[in-house]
Every structure is written in C-alpha cells, then in structure tokens.
Amino acid sequence: MSTAMPPLERLDTGSGTGLGAAWRVIVLNDDHNTFEGVAFALAQTIPGVDYERGLKFANQIHASGQAIVWSGHQELAELYHSELEAKGLTMAPLET
C-alpha cells in the first residue's frame, strides 16, 4: 500500500485545459507622471497596493522602464488596465 501524496494541482499555463495563464497589467515609464502620482493611482486602483507599495512600483518603473503591477484573471486585468489608463498612466498592452 502506497502512502505517496497525489501531485498538487497547478495553475495551467496555457496548455488548453484549466484556467489559463494569468494576464499581466504593466505600467510603463513616461516623462509626465510623478512618482507620487503613480503611487496614488496604483493605491486607488489595485487591491492590496497602498501608497508606500505604489512608491516602490514607481521606483521600479523609473529604474527598469516598466513594472508588472497586477496579474490574474482577464476580466480584472482589463478593468485595472483601463482604470490606470484613465488616471493618466502609460500602459503596455495587456499580455499573458
């Protein structure tokens, strides 16, 4: 008799079954948004992101040119993407 545990289920990464890959919301660096403005927009839009975490994202965006600020289901990704764009942030196209 085997006591081995069955394998844990994993999020499908696009093999045609399961939930599919997560959609990524990416903010790009630009010359017109301030660190504070980016942090404020992220804190107002992305669940779990407060102003301090927003500033960390703003630093990452400035240093590397972009940051993935959220990933998950397509519908929520579309919502957060459009809300951040409406707040004036420069957004990359949504991607998986």
Q: Would you mind describing this structure in some detail?
A:
With 96 residues, this protein is α+β, with helices and mostly antiparallel strands. Helices cover 40% and strands 16% of the residues. A 3-stranded antiparallel β-sheet has the order 2-1-3.
Give short descriptive properties of this protein.
single chain; 96 residues; alpha+beta; Ribosomal Protein L30, Chain: A; three-stranded antiparallel sheet; 3 strands; 40% helix; disordered N terminus
The side-by-side strand order for the widest beta sheet comes to: 2-1-3
Helix content: 25-40%
At the third CATH level, what is the topology name?
Ribosomal Protein L30, Chain: A
Model regions low in confidence, pLDDT < 50 over at least 5 residues: 1-17
Mind describing the biggest β-sheet? 3 strands, antiparallel
Roughly how many Å apart are the termini?
42 Å
- CATH homologous superfamily - what is it? Ribosomal protein L7/L12, C-terminal domain/Adaptor protein ClpS
The best one-word shape is globular
In what range is the share of β-strand residues? 15-25%
Number of strands: 3
Number of helices: 3
Tally the structural domains. 1
Q: What structural category characterises the helix and strand content? A: alpha+beta
Task: Write down the Rg.
Answer: 17 Å
CATH architecture type: 2-Layer Sandwich
User: SSE order, as H and E?
Assistant: EHHEHE
- Report the CATH C-level class: Alpha Beta
Overall average residue pLDDT? 87
Oligomeric form of this entry?
single chain
